[in-house]
């Protein structure tokens, strides 16, 4: 047990942060964060050794990650004074190291800690009224410089608020408005902003959080083209429905849910604006490609299919072949036409899995020599199958 290991090394070990918060909220979390009063790396190596787990550590930060055979992980940090730098204005002098560790965190609700040492096992540490704020369903920062230290916390405030159905406290709200007015975001790298935005777009229902970001003028402060009107909100709600529908299919292949929302947010943006926004967010090339060219390709498809509602399956197949799931879900989200939605869902559910029953070797057996003709014939058979002109193997061979 981690507490015994820590005690033998004469350290104190605490479970902290999201894990403890989620216990109070009766939600489950996979991540476990442990803070060691002492040398977290020494603890992690010893504990991993005993548990036959792997350990990676980062000397510079005094942190380690322990990975168990079943794939689960524990993050370990060292609560040691030399790892903290606080603005001089903050009253940090008299704090114990665990208290300091918790003091540098974003919101009160994330400052709960539970001791693991055998002599104090299960002792709940609550220096900053986290339990009260959880009860009152309030997101509060610990001190007024929190967003100066780290402006990405503004996105986190909105994310937690919407995820838990909490409300951002009055003072904290004031600090957010001030931070937006003072353009704290300008000095944030696109990489960090994008990381936060992406986490919001990956939430179960990101729409209320997006509306809240818009309310704080956070989106336009990232890029002036990110204005959210009623039509965008309606499209985002539709996206949520489409994404939920797709998730219920339990398709094994991963896809980028956040990308579908991002494409919907970018709908109608001119190419230059899209490029500017991608620059601001420092999107990596493959994501950029999808948000820009991929979105335009999807718009072209939408335009075409709206004018050709009665198309044959084989035509639909040819048009959608090679499309990414994100592009198809985007089209389903932005169209009002049930016919278009039905076409795409038919492709996703059935058409894309259709293949001829016969193989190359069957063609060989009926005396056709191997060559480029094979794929030509098999393609024709596939199209005939899609259009339900053939049913059995014999039909195909004919
Ligand atoms: N943290 C912070 N400032 C940030 C990011 C994180 O103070 N910009 C702190 C938070 O207090 C949090 C801890 O670091 O408890 C771990 O961060 P993370 O794993 O991102 O937070 P979780 O609360 O576990 O969030 P999630 O449930 O989304 O994973």
From TrEMBL:
<protein>
    <submittedName>
        <fullName>CBS domain containing protein</fullName>
    </submittedName>
</protein>
<comment type="similarity">
    <text>Belongs to the tRNA nucleotidyltransferase/poly(A) polymerase family.</text>
</comment>
């Amino acid at each position: 047990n981690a507490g015994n290991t820590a005690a033998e090394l004469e350290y104190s070990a605490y479970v902290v942060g999201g894990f403890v918060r989620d216990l109070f909220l009766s939600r489950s979390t996979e991540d476990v964060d442990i803070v060691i009063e002492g040398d977290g790396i020494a603890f992690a190596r010893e504990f991993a050794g005993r548990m036959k787990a792997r350990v990676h550590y980062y000397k510079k930060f005094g942190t380690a990650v322990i990975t168990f055979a079943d794939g689960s992980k524990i993050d370990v940090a060292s609560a040691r004074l030399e790892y903290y730098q606080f603005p001089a204005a903050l009253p940090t002098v008299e704090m114990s190291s665990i208290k300091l560790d918790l003091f540098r965190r974003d919101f009160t609700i994330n400052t709960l800690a539970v001791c693991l040492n055998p002599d104090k096992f299960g002792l709940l540490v609550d220096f900053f009224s986290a339990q009260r704020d959880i009860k009152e369903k309030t997101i509060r920062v610990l001190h007024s410089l929190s967003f100066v230290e780290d402006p990405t916390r503004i996105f986190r405030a909105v994310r937690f608020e919407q995820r838990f159905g909490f409300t951002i406290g009055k003072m904290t709200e004031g600090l957010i408005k001030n931070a937006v007015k003072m353009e704290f975001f300008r000095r944030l790298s696109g990489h960090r902003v994008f990381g936060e935005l992406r986490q919001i777009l990956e939430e179960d229902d990101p729409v209320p959080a997006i509306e809240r970001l818009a309310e704080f003028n956070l989106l336009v402060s990232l890029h002036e083209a990110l204005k959210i009107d009623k039509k965008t909100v309606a499209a985002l709600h539709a996206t949520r429905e489409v994404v939920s529908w797709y998730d219920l299919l339990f398709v094994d292949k991963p896809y980028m849910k956040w990308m579908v929302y991002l494409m919907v947010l970018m709908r109608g943006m001119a190419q230059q604006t899209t490029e500017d926004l991608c620059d601001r967010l420092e999107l990596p090339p493959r994501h950029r490609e999808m948000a820009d060219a991929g979105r335009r390709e999807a718009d072209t498809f939408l335009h075409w299919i709206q004018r050709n509602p009665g198309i044959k399956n084989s035509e639909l197949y040819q048009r959608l072949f090679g499309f990414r799931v994100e592009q198809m879900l985007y089209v389903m989200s932005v169209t009002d036409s049930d016919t278009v939605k039905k076409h795409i869902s038919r492709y996703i559910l059935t058409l894309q899995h259709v293949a001829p029953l016969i193989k190359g070797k069957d063609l060989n057996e009926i005396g056709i020599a191997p060559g480029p003709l094979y794929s030509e014939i098999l393609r024709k058979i596939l199209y005939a199958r899609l259009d339900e002109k053939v049913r059995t193997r014999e039909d195909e061979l004919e």
